[in-house]
Amino acid sequence: MDTARTASHEADWFQRSLQWIERIGNKLPHPFALFLGLTLFIALASALLGALDVGTTAPDGERVEVRNILSTAGARMMLSTGVENFMGFGPFGTVLVIMMGVSVATQTGLLQELIKVAVSRVPKRLVTFAVAYMAMVAHVASDAAYVIMIPLGAIAFHLVGRSPVLGMVLAYVSAGAAYNASPLITPADALFSGVTTQAAQTVDEGYFVSPMATYFFTGASSIVMALALTVIAETLIARRVRALGEPPQLPEELLASASRGARPGPAQRKGLIWAGAIMVGYVALLALALAPGGSPLRAADGGLDGAPLFLGIGLLSSIMFIAAGTVYGVVTGTITKVQHQLPELMAHGVREMAPVIVLFLVIAQFVAYFEWTNLAQVISIEGATLLRSLDMPTLLLIAVIIVAVSVLDLLTLGGIAMYSLVALVLVPMLFAVGISPETTQTAYRIGDSITNPTNPMNPYFLMTLAMLQKYFPKAGIGTLASMTVPLAFCAGAVWIVFFLIWIGIGLPLGP
């Protein structure tokens, strides 16, 4: 009896904690105003620190000082690069291009039918794991994994009679908190291995880190993280979703197609066969085109680092969705006049992203100013230098690095940009004490993933929030954070422990 009462009290305490996160988070201003405020803060901080000649020394010996953005040079930069910052903002082009393709596949009913077929073959009790693991597979499409998986997670849960909000949040966190876990080789593998190779060669000129250097671990991580996310979502987050109120319905454009039943009709089955053939054939052609050493899909040196295949994965994915969606629409009759309907179907995806595009305008300026002032570089270098001064056991040092990267991610948005700055310090430093560059890269990528879905500055957090508000119009940053924070952090803790065990027993990270 006492044990049951204690467990009930702890559960109630946890739910009250999530409600507290929601209340505090919802007191934050609208994301647009939030980024304007952060941009102003950066401007004032750069002026103060610049006047005090605050700076640091880069690994190459060059002095890096904070630059005052409120100076004449800063004003020129802001005026001359404002539009360029917006148009060149990383997620901007990827989101738009992918949404054009996804919109065609969604509006014609292809993606919904694919999900329905998949769900109909998966026992209801396994749908949570299926959504989480599908997100791991979707990482091959880079940031497009968010755009694809968030609505698909909502549809999958709706089809088995569960809250689409739980499916949406699970898909978002699975795509973010486990961003660097996948059973497939992803574009990020090539990007990070290239930077790691460059950093390692400052110590050993012949050292090379392959994109497959951590494949064993990332492949195993995709299963472990999918299982962890499944357990946490079912035991903790499901209760939080229920506390929000009655299970919401899908938006109208998805509700009609998602509620037709799990079994596709004759036309839908025929459409799925043709669309499936298109997708399989498309992937097969890409694989064949990639095989020759001189393939235009490879880099100029014949390698995969910086290969056009990876750099253009967003466009290539969109083309596949457009082709398959169009074929499906023609076969099923949802498209009768391709030349007239196809542009409209693609435009629908752009219209859906309009609120996020507006936010991208101010986020892009914030990121550009943060980099121009050198604040990001100074923070990263000083953080890495602090880690170098710590004298602790190897496994503990690796754990500290992961946690430190996670914290830095909340300030700098992390990713390959931050890794490019800190790798030149971290990789040689840890190499000297017996920690391989591949291990350092993996530690960074774990830390870089965990806080992804919890950071309100993450553009895809804002995208998910916009979708959440379709279900609960009064939902704010705190509402989403009360679900993403425990899900991401608990799963992240499992991932850290799994990595430390892997390293501790000496298993190879990759071939």
TrEMBL record:
<dbReference type="InterPro" id="IPR004697">
    <property type="entry name" value="AbgT"/>
</dbReference>
<keyword id="KW-1133">Transmembrane helix</keyword>
<dbReference type="Pfam" id="PF03806">
    <property type="entry name" value="ABG_transport"/>
</dbReference>
<keyword id="KW-0812">Transmembrane</keyword>
<feature type="transmembrane region" description="Helical">
    <location>
        <begin position="272"/>
        <end position="290"/>
    </location>
</feature>
<feature type="transmembrane region" description="Helical">
    <location>
        <begin position="310"/>
        <end position="331"/>
    </location>
</feature>
<protein>
    <submittedName>
        <fullName>Aminobenzoyl-glutamate transport protein</fullName>
    </submittedName>
</protein>
<feature type="transmembrane region" description="Helical">
    <location>
        <begin position="212"/>
        <end position="233"/>
    </location>
</feature>
<feature type="transmembrane region" description="Helical">
    <location>
        <begin position="32"/>
        <end position="52"/>
    </location>
</feature>
<feature type="transmembrane region" description="Helical">
    <location>
        <begin position="86"/>
        <end position="105"/>
    </location>
</feature>
<feature type="transmembrane region" description="Helical">
    <location>
        <begin position="352"/>
        <end position="372"/>
    </location>
</feature>
<dbReference type="GO" id="GO:0015558">
    <property type="term" value="F:secondary active p-aminobenzoyl-glutamate transmembrane transporter activity"/>
</dbReference>
<feature type="transmembrane region" description="Helical">
    <location>
        <begin position="126"/>
        <end position="159"/>
    </location>
</feature>
<keyword id="KW-0472">Membrane</keyword>
<feature type="transmembrane region" description="Helical">
    <location>
        <begin position="418"/>
        <end position="437"/>
    </location>
</feature>
<dbReference type="GO" id="GO:1902604">
    <property type="term" value="P:p-aminobenzoyl-glutamate transmembrane transport"/>
</dbReference>
<feature type="transmembrane region" description="Helical">
    <location>
        <begin position="392"/>
        <end position="411"/>
    </location>
</feature>
<feature type="transmembrane region" description="Helical">
    <location>
        <begin position="485"/>
        <end position="505"/>
    </location>
</feature>
